[in-house]
Amino acid sequence: MSFVDTLRQWDQAVTCVDKQDLTEALRIFLSIQEPNSKIYFNIGCLHLLNQDLDAAEKAFDCSIGKDEHLAVAFFQRGMTFYRKKRYEESLADFQQAFKALRGNQLIDYKTLGLRYKLYACEVLLNMALSEAQLGNWDKAHGNLVKALNNKTDAKLNIIDRALDSALKQKLFKPVEFPSKVLFKPNKHYVAELEKKDYLGKSTVVASVVPQDAFSGFAPLQPQVKDGPTCPKEPEVLRALEGEPHTVLFLFVPETSDELAVVPGNIVFVLQKGADNWASVIFNERRGLVPYNYLERLEISLASKPNEGPGKSQPPSREPPIRPERKQGLTPSGNSSGDTQQKDEQSTDNLCIVKVRFTFNFAVSVPLGSSSEVLIDKISKKLNLPSTAITLSLTSEATEQSVITPSTDMESVWRGASGLRITLWCHANEHTDGTPQSEVHLVALHSYESSNPEDLNFHQGDTITLITKINQDWLEGQCSGTTGIFPASFVEEVPVNGRSLE
Q: Is the pLDDT of residue 107 over 80?
């Protein structure tokens, strides 16, 4: 089997794992004729998920045979022996994994395609557990003390708990490799698997023959002398979306999805709503404009020179009344029904509000928003009712600094520097007679991501839930940092209070 075929099947199998189709992923992996050490490792991990310990042991044997320095393969085979209650062999494999670390605190396998870090202190903890299973409590205690010397701050909790259990001669939980985390092929190699058409298909750019779609090689078509001229529609107009309209009156937007235009501008209407609002495109930006501010524009080559676009003078009468926007009747300012393309909303008028709470976060609101809009935005971010929080201009919530419906918001927004302002948020102890409580989660596995919006944590960490985004993703706060993370990596701490459900 060629390297390209192996790479293609490897990528297909990993994609099946991402789709939770483990049976098909294992079938594809097993069909690869000459697997490397990483593929054998993946096969062993899938067998472990299926509780097929004998097949997993054979797969990890092959992985180590291909690469005797792959510490994580020794670690996984050690866990396989531990599950089979072969503690002496499990201890030997954990010792080999620790030896392969070569005195380093950890090995980061990210560059090899595996999103996992193998820590020396975790390997020593599993060595101590194997010694404890064999009745060697003194050696188990020694390995845990050695793990403390190799610890990182993030792993301190699990080592302390294991040491307390060992002193009482009680068994503790092993550190396990996270499920469904596999070696992935090099993404640059995978990108080269797709066929590329470097030449493309030729098209007619310009022709003396109207509606000429021929793109091969042929002599020019015969032309009729002194025949009637049939003006063609300019190519630029064919390429543009929507219907051209000219702006009659100055329009100043009041929300972020509306578009500022001045008399004489030419906009292209993508969609008109039943409430007299239109989704238009102007200067490669999309937004909403009242349709009664526009006038349909006919553009053709037959137009007289003095009647071309931009030549007409804007009317001098007063602009019409701004129409009322109605839910469900106003078209979207960011997409058209045919193209389904999205442009970024205008952020020229948005102010970034940095909020100092028990943790720091930021929200964006239109500059000049009312106190109700600001408080509602922040309360939704915290997943609390608006009556449960108090905003203030200073760290202490005094009568002069607290933001209420009677506060002069113009003076508040004047304090924004460079469209940025800092406010303090205080949670009220009681809202409807019931104290607010938090949901605390404990990390089952370590999670690290290069995405800036993700929350990184380690196994055993406690996370405070902020909001549940969907069935698979949550937003929370850990060690003063806020971000999103997979729900499968944590479980709820059984305490009184709000539930994750």
A: yes
- Cα–Cα distance, 375 to 387 (Å, whole number): 9
Q: Is the pLDDT of residue 291 over 70?
A: yes
Matching residue, tokens 């971000």: 483
Closest-CA residue to 106 (of 81, 141, 75, 68): 75
| DSSP code string of 191-210 | HTTS---SS--------SST
Q: Kind and range of the H or E element at 460?
A: none
pLDDT band at residue 379 using 50, 70 and 90 as cut-offs = confident
Q: Are 392 and 424 in contact (CB under 8 A)?
A: yes
Q: Nearest Cα to 353, choosing from 400, 409, 431?
A: 409
pTM across the whole model: 0.42
The sign of the torsion formed by the CA atoms of 321, 327, 330, 335 equals: positive
- Describe the strand order of the beta sheet including 462-468 as a list of residue ranges: 481-486, 473-478, 462-468, 440-443, 490-492
* Cβ atoms of residues 424 and 436 within 8 Å: no
**In sequence order, what are the beta bridge partners of 167?**
none
The size of the chain, in residues, is 501
Residue type, position 401, single letter? S
Which strands form 266-272's sheet, in the order they lie side by side?
285-290, 277-282, 266-272, 243-247, 294-296
Pick the residue with more confidence: 418 or 41? 41
294 and 267 in contact (C-beta within 8 Å)? Answer: yes
Distance CA 109, CA 117 (A): 6
**Alpha carbon distance 156, 148 (integer Å):** 8
What distances in angstroms separate CA 328 from CA 207, 288, 334, one per listed residue?
45, 14, 15
Looking only at the bridges linking them, the beta strands covering 350-356 and 420-427 are parallel
Strand 243-247, strand 266-272: pairing: antiparallel
**Strand bridging mode 350-356 / 285-290:** unpaired
Tokens, residue 377: 């935005």
Report pLDDT for 131. 92
pLDDT of 307 > 90? The answer is no
| Mean pLDDT within 149-155 | 72
CB of 323 closer than 8 Å to CB of 290: yes
User: What angle, 0 to 180 degrees and rounded to 10, lies between the N-to-C axes of helices 3-18 and 22-31?
Assistant: 170
| pLDDT surpassing 50 at residue 238 | no
